[in-house]
Amino acid sequence: MKKQILMMLALAIWLAACLGGSTVMAAAIEFTDSLGSQLNKTADGAGGAMRTKILKQYADLSKLQDEHNSLVSKTSGLHYDNEARLTAARKEIKEIDGDKIRRLDEQVKSAKSKYQPLFDSYSSISKQASAAKKLKDKTLSKLLQTQADGLKTASTLARQDIRNKESALQAAKKEKTRKAKEIRKILGESDLHKSKIKAEKSAMASTNKLISTEWSNFKAAVKKSEADRTTDTLTRLHTLSSQALKNKQNIYNLEVKISASAKNAEDKLR
Description:
Elements: H1 2-17, H2 22-28, H3 33-46, H4 48-93, H5 98-134, H6 138-223, H7 227-269
């Protein structure tokens, strides 16, 4: 339950702050019954071609707003999915070949533990052989040296076994580093796309301020039944809304690219 609440909160924050003013636009343009009635009155008062033009402009703007809302919904869903996938991918990088490396590390430790008694015996016998030689006890010295030579051969093979296992471990760690670097580079592509998204949001925020102002002008014109001013404001609103929609489409396209980067990283992790 807590996780779901956090997910909803994160999505709400993103909608409010990350769509670069989409919520500002939603608040600025609101098609109400009262406004529709005033518009019809203005259009009817103008009559003829002007009436047809005003009604069509208003309908086109309403349709454009529907496109805005649809795109915002699609983009927000894709954005949240992307963030979750990117976060998961970055966490998984730490576990690349984790089982393999742990197994190889355990083999190294096990081999060292297994061969330590052999190394200790070789060291002890060698010291005894050296001591017997100093005492000039040829029989004991020869016996001990023979044992030491046998243990030396076994120790050499044991050390080589340990080195082989250590080499395998180091190779696995090196391969993990290579894979991690490759995947981080792929994930880094998303940062470039996010930078472009930020620029689109900034541009859209400026456009939305103009939309808000123009919408106020439009409502004032309709309230006073000023047909010429009404059609002029609707023309500007359509132009500005089209620009904002273009920004939103660019943001969506960039989120699609981020999604592709996430998938590429996921494929590499598999």
